[in-house]
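Good morning C.,

I know you're traveling, so I'll keep this short. The sequence:
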Amino acid sequence: MTPPGRDPLLSRLERDSLLVALALSVAAAGLWPGRPGRALGVLGGFALIAVSYRGIRAAVDGLWTASPASPGMPGAPAQPPRPPRAGFVKFFTRHAILAGGAYVMMARFEFDPMAMLAGVTAPAVAATVEFVRTVRARDGGPHSRSS
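The tokens, ready to paste straight into the viewer:
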């Protein structure tokens, strides 16, 4: 297992997600030059998913560091247990902030909702690209290529 923040796959997915969002934004600006809200909507949707990802990643990294030490690991820091309610409050507060951000982007900045949806899907497109890369890089194996 690798420590948090050092996984090369996650680094590639983060980089590729940003590149996909930028490409989608440039494509939206090229397709609809008179509607800059669409290109900005893609970036706004990506910003929302990036904030959500950072929150989830921080929670997972926090769980990683707060996991109990195994008997063979001397000197593990002892942290006082947090009440379970704190996690729920943090979870719902984060989602309320994301909902408020989406509202501001759509109602006040007048970003196109479908463009924002395209920006939110950038990590899924990046994960698909990574999957295709992985399948193509595989030289052979126990699985038949004909199936």
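Safe travels,
E.
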